[in-house]
Design goal:
With about 280 residues, the protein is an alpha/beta fold. The chain is built from nine helices and eight strands. Helix content is about 40%, strand content about 15%.
Length: about 280
């Protein structure tokens, strides 16, 4: 189901995103890597081409912490007059503190709001790209740790010392966004998926002190193992008729009971207002 299909992967220059890109390109997919760093992005394009022999891999500049950059990236892709069969919202930050350029808490702004805007801006193209189009949101089992969304707090700088509370909220947002997409897009032919990739020894842990890093990541999955469920949700015929659900180890998993239709609708409304798209 991969051959000749076009995939756009955010954060495709490293970790799970890069491993996902290599797997999809090896099966004949046309790949756009949406990356913040042009240097890292070009290096990733070269890695994917070298690993797979594919010539259909391109860089798309994208900084999810800037809604202006998101708009520019979407316009860049749309100008290429290319179908988009699968959008993989993979990029993310974890355990950091700060604000986005538009004044949103860093995890919420990057992990959810930037992806919300990108998806909304590309949605018409996705819907027009034929049957079997998909939107895949890389969430985390960390979303079980969130008790809800404080819509005032996501407009302020990260308050927790580790940033992990805010990370959990952003991952809950990924699940809620996936659920609301399924409701909004019912009958359109576009299906949405959220997933837990596993606890992966990826670059998300790069801010951990170097000497402690091996102790933390020793029992974690490799990035290749972490990419398996992303590839499954993006391509497997087994889930072609499903939408709005949460997956772990290529199997359905019940999401947090906090992920209610009411909260999903409220998040969608706020996200639409804050991004002015959708």
């Amino acid at each position: 189901m991969t051959s000749t299909r076009t995939f756009l992967i955010t954060g495709g220059n490293t970790g799970i995103g890069l491993a996902t890109a290599i797997a999809l390109a090896a099966d004949g997919g046309r790949i756009y890597l949406a990356c913040r760093s042009a240097t890292a992005g070009q290096a990733a394009v070269a890695k994917v081409k070298a690993a797979t022999g594919s010539s259909t891999v391109w860089l798309l500049p994208l900084d999810l912490a800037s809604l202006a950059s998101v708009r520019a990236a979407a316009a860049d892709f749309l100008a290429r007059d290319e179908p988009l069969h699968v959008l993989l919202n993979n990029a993310g930050v974890g355990g950091q503190r700060g604000l986005t350029q538009d004044g949103f808490e860093l995890h919420f702004g990057v992990n959810h709001l930037g992806h919300f805007a990108l998806t909304a801006l590309l949605l018409d193209r996705i819907a027009a790209s034929g049957p079997g189009t998909r939107i895949v949101n890389v969430s985390s089992e960390a979303h079980y740790g969130a008790t809800g969304i404080d819509f005032a707090a996501v407009r302020r700088r990260t308050t927790s010392f580790t940033g992990m509370h805010e990370y959990a909220v952003s991952k809950l947002c990924n699940v809620l966004f996936t659920q609301e997409l399924a409701r909004v897009l019912a009958g359109s032919g576009v299906h949405s998926y959220a997933l837990h990739p596993g606890v992966v020894a990826s670059d998300i842990w790069r801010r951990v002190p170097r000497l402690a890093r091996p102790l933390i990541t020793a029992r974690m999955l490799t990035v290749e193992q972490g990419a398996v469920t992303s590839v499954y949700c993006a391509t497997s015929p087994s889930v072609a008729a499903e939408s709005g659900l949460f997956y772990d180890k290529c199997a359905l998993r019940e999401p947090s009971p906090v992920a209610t239709p009411e909260l999903a609708a409220a998040l969608w409304q706020r996200s639409t207002e804050w991004t002015t798209v959708g």
